[in-house]
Amino acid sequence: MISNNKHKIGVFDVLNVIFLSLLTLTMLYPFVNLFVISVSSMDQVVKSGSLMLFPTSINLEGYEYVFKYGNLLNAFKATLFITFVGTLVNLVMTSLGAYVMSCKELPGRNFLMSMIIITMFFGGGLIPSYLVVSQLHLVDSLWALILPTAIQSFNLILMRNFFQQIPQSLKEAARIDGSSELAILAKIMIPLSLPILATLALFYGVGHWNQYSQAIIYINDPKLYPLQVVIKGMYESAVGELEADRLPPPVETVRSATIMIATVPILFVYPFLQKYFVQGVLVGSVKG
Fold it and tell me: What is the pLDDT of residues 184-207, one digit of tens each?
């Protein structure tokens, strides 16, 4: 029998749609505004008070200035290396650690978990961290931006909780068949953990892409600077030229263009991971 019950649209539904639409617009407007400013002339920006939705004419001086900046190509290469290799290292190390911590038969499991949680509240500090990186001869190396943060405690806990949702009978059956723990992880746990892997890949990838503070501490060679450091220097250079009465593109245009260049590439990654993102966070955060 086909039910004739239909959902009636009430006042709450209308108000909810209006509220969510306005909320969406408030989130999209800053991004749209930056893009419009980046392709506008200074006269347009001044007349509009930097509040723009549509450009009256297209002006690409800001992007031309940015792409002519000497170290930008090296910065893109360095950032791509940090992002892809760093994320791969993060996922491998986090998976290994999370699998071990998900094994209930592990001796001292609760103590080790407590030590991991403590690192979320207390860190070693800048000077001890720098000394460790220096003793490992990683200063002025891109690996200094990858290895010290190979595992983040919060992400390890999320993945551990996800592993605990997987039926233990699968692991027991694999052990009976003679599989090693590493084989169980690679052939059973990882294939069943795509949602949490995609979620952590997004977390780690965005963190590496936005790498700045560690880069200015550990990297001295300008050729190894990641994108965010170069973009900061580029913006300061444009401001300096303006103060020196030169004629660079408008500072607001350069600022908006650099933000767009730094933001857009990582935004294209999210649609491919979106279907896994919510599921990975929810399942990974349910069980302690």
Answer: 888 888 888 888 888 888 889 989
Q: Residue 152 corresponds to which tokens in the numbers above?
A: 């983040």
pLDDT of 240: 59
What is the crossing angle of helices 153-165 and 72-102, to 10°? 50
Radius of gyration of the chain (CA): 24
Query: What is the rounded distance in angstroms from the CA atom of residue 258 to the CA atom of residue 56?
Result: 21
pLDDT of 282: 53
Q: Which residues contact 129 (CB under 8 A, 6 or more apart)?
A: 123, 148
Sign of CA dihedral 245, 250, 256, 258: negative
188 close to 122: Cβ distance less than 8 angstroms: no
pLDDT tens readout for residues 95-113: 999 999 988 888 888 898 8
Residue 127, C-beta contacts closer than 8 angstroms, at least 6 positions apart:
none
pLDDT digits (tens, 9 = 90+) for 143-165: 999 998 899 989 999 899 888 88
* Cα dihedral sign, 245-248-254-258: negative
